[in-house]
């Protein structure tokens, strides 16, 4: 893949250089070669299993490719990784508070459930995100609005 100018790179935060490079390559490959993009994201996860940024990229990739079964498994792994990194219980229903990266993962899982037609699961998750993030720093309101649109469309 081509080299990136600093202006073209996405900011994935603190990551080993090799992992950041794999994510940058995955993003660049996404629209041209989706299988290659998936390999880059999986390689990043392999190198840094606790890097929630890599798991987020994989979930977004699968969602955009409309591979919802893969997106669901990847989103569940993202939430589990975020919970482990934050020292939270495996079960998100037991979370009393959570850092933004864990709430973002739970929001992502809610979105995948919504896209997969599981509105009740999505609603429960996004309600928990909103309760723990009243300032809407992670954007739970976006998924809540999509849920409302889904309800109105039925």
What's the helix and strand layout?
Elements lengths: L16 H13 L4 H14 L4 H13 L3 H19 L13 H16 L3 H14 L7 H14 L1
CATH class: Mainly Alpha
Specify the number of helices.
7
The H-level CATH homologous superfamily, spelled out, is Tetratricopeptide repeat domain
The first-to-last residue Cα distance is 44 Å
The radius of gyration over CA amounts to 16 Å
State the secondary-structure class: mainly alpha
Order of helices and strands: HHHHHHH
* CATH architectural group: Alpha Horseshoe
Q: Mean pLDDT across all residues, rounded?
A: 93
**Unreliably modeled segments:** none
Shape: globular
Number of domains: 1
Helix content: 55-70%
Number of DSSP E strands: 0
Q: Using the coordinates shown, work out and report the CATH topology.
A: Serine Threonine Protein Phosphatase 5, Tetratricopeptide repeat
Query: Biggest β-sheet: count, sense, barrel?
Result: none
Q: How big a fraction of the residues is strand?
A: under 5%
């Amino acid at each position: 893949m081509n080299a990136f100018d600093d202006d073209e790179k996405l900011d994935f935060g603190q990551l080993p250089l090799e992992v950041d490079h794999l994510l940058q390559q995955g993003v660049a490959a996404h629209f041209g070669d989706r299988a290659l993009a998936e390999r880059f994201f999986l390689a990043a996860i392999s190198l840094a299993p606790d890097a929630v940024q890599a798991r987020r990229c994989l979930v977004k990739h699968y969602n955009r490719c409309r591979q919802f079964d893969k997106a669901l498994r990847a989103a569940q792994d993202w939430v589990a990784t975020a919970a482990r990194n934050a020292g939270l219980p495996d079960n998100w229903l037991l979370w009393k508070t959570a850092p933004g990266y864990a709430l973002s993962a739970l929001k992502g899982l809610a979105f995948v459930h919504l896209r997969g037609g599981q509105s009740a699961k999505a609603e429960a998750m996004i309600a928990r995100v909103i309760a723990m993030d009243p300032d809407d720093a992670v954007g739970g309101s976006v998924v809540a609005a999509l849920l409302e649109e889904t309800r109105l469309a039925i």
